[in-house]
């Protein structure tokens, strides 16, 4: 089987493949999936760290399609049709494989906890290439999120704790990648945040009571680490870098990615569990998160509107500010009572900014999307 599957994957990933070869490859893969689903999926998972990069990407994309068809019986298909699904041993291996590929660039070997610390031991160039392989890691994160949607909260419960633990175990420094370890930690942090965002995007759409309780539990358990080890340091480093006289564009782009991803992760946790987080021991943590966002917006929104930074930085900074402002808007409209203690500060800041924008038509047109968010916030407040 291995040789035929590998040849089919090579054909699919070849830029010059003709339609006939692609159809033949698809038929070959589907035949093996139907005849020996478990062995087929395990072999695809084993290729996720192979070379060249096109082969490992192709294996993950094909694995994603197989998982959607074979992971869980959704009651679809023709009446009386026998369908084969993966057994639990295969599923467990695929789960651990995805986590390991994201955090170590290797296939799993033993326990998958504390991978971030162990990943730098004897870390080679091949592993670094894999964890920095953006197309691969994006699709690994998407596949992990697909499985999480089908499994959580009754299975795959180790996923989010493992990811958050890996985020908290990486060092806070985000200076230039001058050593292998620094490059490794930066790549791990990016993969963790990408996977967390994808997973939370999936589970946030589930509506059963057990799902809502699960979202509350992970928000209470992990918001603090995500804020302290993800969002807060990324915004601080970004702030320092933006104020520096000399800037490395690569570093700036990376820091912007960290900041945007961590903001999205926090937005999902606040959006689904703001009421629960605003009660009890996590109340002060919510205050820290919201006030950090308010402070960053207050410092940099006037700079963006006045275009007081380099042109190549304005668009990136504007995207981050829009994301933070949208978090504020969504939280206020979804939880107006609990958000009330923050309303005065944002109302004054957003109203003043809107007046500044509307005084100059050119500035308004140049910042039309920000203007829309400001109007949306003020409209929501009036409508409460």
Q: Distance between termini?
A: 63 Å
Portion of residues in helices? over 70%
The largest sheet is: none
Which percent band covers the strand fraction?
Answer: under 5%
Shape: globular
- Uncertain segments of ≥5 residues (pLDDT<50)? 172-178
Can you write the helix and strand succession as a string? HHHHHHHHHHHHHHHHH
Beta strand count = 0
Q: Compute the number of helices.
A: 17
Q: Overall mean pLDDT score?
A: 90
- The secondary-structure class comes to mainly alpha
Radius of gyration: 23 Å
Furnish the topology, listing elements before pairings.
Blueprint: H1 2-13, H2 19-35, H3 37-46, H4 53-70, H5 88-104, H6 115-118, H7 125-131, H8 134-151, H9 159-169, H10 180-203, H11 209-243, H12 249-277, H13 283-306, H14 311-334, H15 336-358, H16 361-366, H17 368-383
Please explain how this structure is put together.
By secondary structure, the protein is an all-alpha fold. Helix content is 77%, strand content 0%. The radius of gyration is 23 Å and the shape is globular. About 2% of the residues have low confidence.
Q: What's the short version?
A:
By secondary structure, the chain is an all-alpha fold.
Descriptive terms for the model:
mainly alpha
């Amino acid at each position: 089987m291995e040789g035929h599957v590998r040849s089919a994957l090579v054909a699919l990933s070849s830029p010059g493949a003709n339609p006939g070869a692609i159809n033949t490859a698809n038929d070959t893969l589907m035949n093996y999936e139907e005849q020996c689903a478990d062995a087929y999926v395990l072999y695809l998972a084993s290729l996720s760290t192979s070379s060249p990069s096109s082969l490992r990407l192709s294996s993950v994309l094909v694995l994603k399609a197989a998982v959607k068809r074979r992971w869980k019986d959704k009651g679809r298909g023709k009446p009386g049709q026998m369908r084969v699904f993966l057994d639990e041993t295969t599923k467990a291996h695929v789960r651990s494989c995805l986590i390991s590929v994201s955090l170590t660039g290797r296939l799993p070997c033993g326990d998958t906890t504390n991978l971030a610390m162990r990943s730098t031991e004897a870390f080679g160039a091949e592993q670094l290439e894999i964890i920095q392989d953006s197309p691969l890691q994006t699709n690994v994160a998407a596949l992990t999120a697909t499985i999480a949607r089908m499994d959580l909260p009754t299975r795959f419960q180790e996923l989010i704790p493992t990811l958050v633990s890996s985020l908290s175990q990486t060092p806070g420094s985000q200076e230039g990648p001058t050593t292998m370890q620094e490059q490794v930690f930066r790549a791990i942090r990016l993969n963790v945040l990408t996977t967390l965002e994808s997973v939370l995007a999936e589970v946030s759409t589930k509506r059963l009571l057990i799902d809502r309780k699960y979202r509350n539990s992970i928000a209470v358990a992990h918001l603090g680490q995500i804020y302290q080890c993800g969002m807060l340091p990324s915004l601080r480093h970004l702030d320092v870098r933006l104020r520096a006289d000399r800037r490395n564009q690569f570093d700036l782009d990376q820091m912007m990615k960290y900041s945007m991803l961590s903001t999205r992760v926090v937005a999902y946790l606040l959006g689904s569990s703001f009421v629960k987080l605003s009660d009890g021991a996590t109340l002060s943590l919510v205050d820290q998160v919201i006030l950090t966002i308010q402070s960053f917006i207050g410092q940099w929104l006037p700079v963006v509107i006045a275009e007081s930074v380099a042109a190549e930085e304005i668009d990136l900074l504007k995207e981050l500010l829009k994301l933070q402002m949208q978090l504020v808007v969504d939280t206020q409209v979804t939880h107006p009572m609990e958000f009330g203690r923050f309303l005065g500060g944002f109302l004054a800041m957003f109203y003043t900014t809107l007046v500044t924008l509307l005084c100059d038509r050119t500035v308004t047109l140049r910042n039309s999307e920000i203007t829309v968010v400001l109007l949306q916030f003020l409209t929501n407040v009036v409508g409460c």
